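Notes from the 1:1 (GR / supervisor)

We went over the backlog. Supervisor wanted to see one worked example end to end before approving the batch request, so GR pasted a single chain during the call. The sequence is below; no edits were made to it. Supervisor asked that the structure be written out right there so they could see what the output format looks like.
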Amino acid sequence: MILTTPLFSGLKKIFPDYEIFVLTSKVNNEIALTNPNVSGTIVYKKNIFSVLKLIFTLRKLKFNFWIDTKDEYSSTSKTLLKFGNYDKSLGFNTKLDLFDVSLKEFVKSEHSVSYSLSPLFYFDNNFDACKLKPEITIPLQTVNKYSEFFGKINKKKILVNVSAGSETRYWGTENWIEFIRQIDKNIEMILISDKKDKEFADSLIKNHISDNLTYVDADNIFEVAEVVRNCDVIVTPDTSIVHLASCFNKPIVAMFHNVEWVIKRYAPLSDVHRVILSKDKNSIADISVEEVLEKLKEIM
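Structure output shown during the call:
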């Protein structure tokens, strides 16, 4: 969803008087709902009563355009498309010619954001999308929650994220301990993790003898985004924090396992970034601490 947000602002530039509705899951609904370019969201839940309600909603609302930026065949997309009430559909025709307009010829690069932006080039082939980056609107109460904490820190801040979506993207305990140990004591490290890795994060805190490492227990995606926004540099494995860093154009060192399509699709979009590739396609654990420190030094 974060990587789809540039489409919302781009559509609003082309169609300033149109309303934009986004079909979401329960998990990513708030990201779209709080976006200033979005008029409303329609939540898709996979149970029979919710689906019936969704079909009723889709039939009731009349859309000029139905846009689907998933570039792979989806039976769910096919079903929802059948019940939608629209003048023209745009999407990626893969197995079947489901959509009136195929977006494949309007994709400018292999990055995920380019797939999200492809409808803009259908509407205006000369559209300037260079300045469009992912975005997330952080609620004021979240900003206020962290303002005092970050206001007390008067030195450079590195965000250290130790979590990832799969085990192949975990760097390893010894690597993190050594990396944290070698960071200058005049730099504040903000440690963050997924809830499931809280015990691991606590162990890193206990292993660190200096007082320049603080764990932040962020409760949701907006709190994570606010922590990212307040830090100067990000160090993380390949995960959604890479894209949150892009939202705020934060310098970042990102560790990726060596799978070409993943790098092309999900590389950082921050102006200043370093991507470190593992030798192993199934793990990032072989990336050395020295290499991460070297890349960090380059962008500090």
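Supervisor's comment: Residues 140-299 form a domain with the Rossmann fold fold (CATH 3.40.50.2000).
Batch request approved.
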